[in-house]
Amino acid sequence: MRWKIASRFLLSTIIIVIIVLVVNTIIGISLIWYQATQEQFKNTPEQFTRQLANEISGSNETIFLSPAGKKRLDERNAWLQVLDDNGNEIYRYRVAKEFPKHYSPNALINNYKNRIVADTTLYISETKKGQSYFVGIKNSNVQRSVFTFDIQTAALIIGRYLLMFLFVDILIALLIGVFFGQKLTKPLHQLIEGISTLRKRNFTQMPVKSSVYKEVFDNMNELSNTLDMYEKAQQQHEKMRDEWISNISHDLKTPLASIQGYAELLEYANTPEEVAEYSQIITQKSHYMKELLDDLNLTMKLRNNALPLQLKETNLVPFSREIVIDVLNDEAFVARSLDYQVADDVIMTTIDQKLMKRALLNFIDNAFIHNDKAVNVTVSVSKSYPQEILDDEKLSTMRACIMIQDTGKGIPEDELNNIFERYYRGTNTTNTRGTGLGTAIARDIVEAHGGRVVLRSERGKGTTIFVLLP
């Protein structure tokens, strides 16, 4: 493919050279013909000399030069000398004294070919009566060159020179074509290889050099990046789908088995009480399955950035206060100790209120559910986080901090890294309420907002969760 492109380029170069040479020849001949037809080239010294015969009249005894002829000689700074058949002068007008009054045949030829007086060129012609006459034109710019040639030989020589020029031009075109062909076709070969690699789903970037193809290479690399992004997105979607199917298969086995077992027991139930009991369990497991599917769907979307957030500028003070009130109004926590502290009246940030409410409720619920009833939980909202506790440069962009602190059992140090894993339940709790995905979902919700969740806990002293938002 590379040499095919180069050969086509060379052939095009040679054809262009031939066309240019032919066009130049035609233009040259046309210019010569055009110049020859112009008035300034019609009035040459030879033509002037011949035309002067129209102004000369008379015989050998008496020669007359018309006033128009004298005027024309004066305008050309020329003179006239008329000779008889024996070479004797029979008329002169403005003839220089250096010229003789009698010419032998040899003298005529010598005077015609050579200059006797500097800057004066002689031209010879005949009158209508057959008398010979000289016209001398004094002009240093006028030169005479006499040469003879054979038309066939001249045509042969011109043809040879044209062929030579054509050969040399083609040779030069070949050399230039090979040189520039390498320069021009090498990037094309790289482009062809780059397209071939793209077809094989290899999105390697091509080196970009300063050349006429730089913009093409830039566009190819941009296309490669775009295809690579689409390829990774497709792989991510396939991975998400496979993981979703795997999670569904794994997480639904237990409730499905319970439903199947109690459905079989219904066939052998002897009393209405047994039927009601088994039906209630089946209903509970069905609700659990629905809750599990919803949580799995949400966590998969959050992990793969596939959930569009309904962001809204929000004042965290009334927002968090309403959440605390909702918890206190919950029958499960109506008798529990929950304090609320706020340092400022206005703490603005941009959040998806529905998702953020779910995350904060999960952290507060866990503080009650996995501790004794005597635990005290405090929710604090401020514009800054306690730097003496969280000394991390990565948190410098955070402008809001929600702290959920409890005085409960605390979490063992070796379990802290697993708290946000799916289905993980610590050893310090016997509560199995929920799907086991709540804490992971809450953390993913905060991170989807560009925030961060930081966990600090000490066995026997309680646990603190910092929800930091930008």
Automatic annotation (TrEMBL):
Lineage top rank: taxon = Bacteria
Q: Which residues fall in a coiled-coil region?
A: 213-243
UniProt cross-references to InterPro entries, sorted A to Z = BphY/WalK/GraS-like (IPR050351), HATPase_C_sf (IPR036890), HATPase_dom (IPR003594), His_kinase_dom (IPR005467), HisK_dim/P_dom (IPR003661), HisK_dim/P_sf (IPR036097), Sig_transdc_His_kin-like_C (IPR004358)
GO terms for molecular function, please?
A: ATP binding; phosphorelay response regulator activity; phosphorelay sensor kinase activity; protein kinase activator activity
Q: Which GO terms describe its biological process?
A: osmosensory signaling via phosphorelay pathway
**According to its UniProt record, what is one Pfam family this protein matches?**
HATPase_c
Catalytic activity, as annotated: ATP + protein L-histidine = ADP + protein N-phospho-L-histidine
Spell out the PROSITE patterns in the cross-references.
HIS_KIN
EC number of the protein: 2.7.13.3
Its protein name is: histidine kinase
Question: Organism, per UniProt?
Answer: Candidatus Kurthia intestinigallinarum
Membrane-crossing residues?
A: 9-34, 161-181
User: Which residues does the UniProt record annotate as the domain Histidine kinase?
Assistant: 247-470
Keywords for this protein: ATP-binding, Coiled coil, Kinase, Membrane, Nucleotide-binding, Phosphoprotein, Transferase, Transmembrane, Transmembrane helix, Two-component regulatory system
Gene Ontology CC, one term: membrane
Stored SMART domains = HATPase_c (SM00387), HisKA (SM00388)
Q: Where in the cell is it found?
A: Membrane
